[in-house]
């Protein structure tokens, strides 16, 4: 059975959600952030040199990095579900959007979060450039979700599992006003209606009301 090491309020919610969507059995090991630094506890650092979550144990295999874990679970345990194959018309779109979160969306939000902690003036050129980049990234997502119900196209896929954290829980760390993005807000309402998402959030982060608006 898979063992998921889950750090509260982190990208590891993706893995819990994936297993719920695929109906896979798993053991969930909760880890709590340091109250002061908000970083990972020593228990995670003892398991992996970077001390980050998610981590998944599968027998003797220990795997980190959420995108790698998602791919691993889908291929090895999920029968290829939630990942369109090369023959599918949405295959190229899936590849783009499944990598978009960790390639564009999450990094720019994270950089802006750390920059804001420096209390730089609003007109600081680096801060302004990062905000401009985030605006472009959010506009791209908004446009896409005005064209199709899910990021890869007409079907829910792992691309959505990879991206939703950045649009929801990550806003605990870097607030983003979703008022200008009606398509994103409608998309998040669709996500919130998925039973597997509700189960995953209740199990992984029972203290958190999912930020779906």
Please give a structural write-up:
It is a single chain. This protein is of the alpha+beta class and 213 residues long. The chain has two domains: 2-82 and 198-204, Glutaredoxin (3-Layer(aba) Sandwich), CATH 3.40.30.10; 91-194, Glutathione S-transferase Yfyf (Class Pi), Chain A, domain 2. 50% of the residues lie in helices and 9% in strands. β3 (55-58) and β4 form a beta hairpin.
Task: Name its key features.
single chain, 213 residues, alpha+beta, Glutaredoxin, Glutathione S-transferase Yfyf (Class Pi), Chain A, domain 2, 2 domains, four-stranded mixed sheet, 50% helix
Oligomer kind: single chain
By CATH, the topology of the largest domain is Glutathione S-transferase Yfyf (Class Pi), Chain A, domain 2
Strand portion, in percent?
5-15%
SS summary, helix count = 8
Question: What are the secondary-structure elements, in order, as H or E?
Answer: EHEHEEHHHHHH
Task: Describe the structure concisely for a colleague.
The protein has about 210 residues and is of the alpha+beta class. The protein contains 8 helices and 4 strands.
SSE map:
Elements: E1 2-7, H1 13-22, E2 26-31, H2 42-47, E3 55-58, E4 61-64, H3 66-76, H4 91-116, H5 125-147, H6 158-167, H7 182-192, H8 195-204
Parallel strand pairs: 1-2
Antiparallel strand pairs: 1-3, 3-4
Helix pairs in contact: 1-3, 1-6, 1-8, 4-5, 4-6, 5-7
């Amino acid at each position: 059975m898979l063992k998921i090491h889950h750090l509260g309020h982190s990208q590891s919610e993706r893995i819990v959600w994936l297993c719920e969507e695929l109906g896979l059995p798993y053991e969930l090991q909760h880890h709590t952030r340091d109250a002061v630094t908000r970083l990972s506890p020593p228990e995670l650092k003892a398991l992996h040199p970077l001390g980050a979550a998610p981590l998944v144990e599968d027998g003797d295999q220990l795997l980190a990095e959420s995108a790698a874990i998602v791919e691993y679970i889908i291929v090895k345990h999920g029968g290829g579900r939630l990942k369109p194959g090369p023959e599918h018309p949405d295959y190229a779109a899936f590849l783009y959007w499944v990598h978009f979160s960790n390639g564009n969306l999450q990094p720019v939000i994270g950089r802006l979060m750390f920059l804001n902690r420096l209390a730089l003036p609003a007109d600081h050129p680096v801060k302004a450039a990062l905000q401009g980049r985030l605006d472009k990234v959010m506009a791209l997502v908004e446009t896409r979700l005005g064209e199709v119900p899910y990021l890869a196209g007409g079907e829910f896929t792992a691309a959505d599992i990879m991206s939703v954290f950045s649009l929801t829980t990550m806003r605990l760390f870097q607030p983003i006003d979703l008022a200008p993005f009606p398509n994103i807000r409608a998309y998040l309402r669709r996500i919130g209606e998925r039973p597997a998402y509700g189960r995953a959030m209740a199990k992984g982060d029972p203290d958190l009301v999912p930020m779906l608006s």
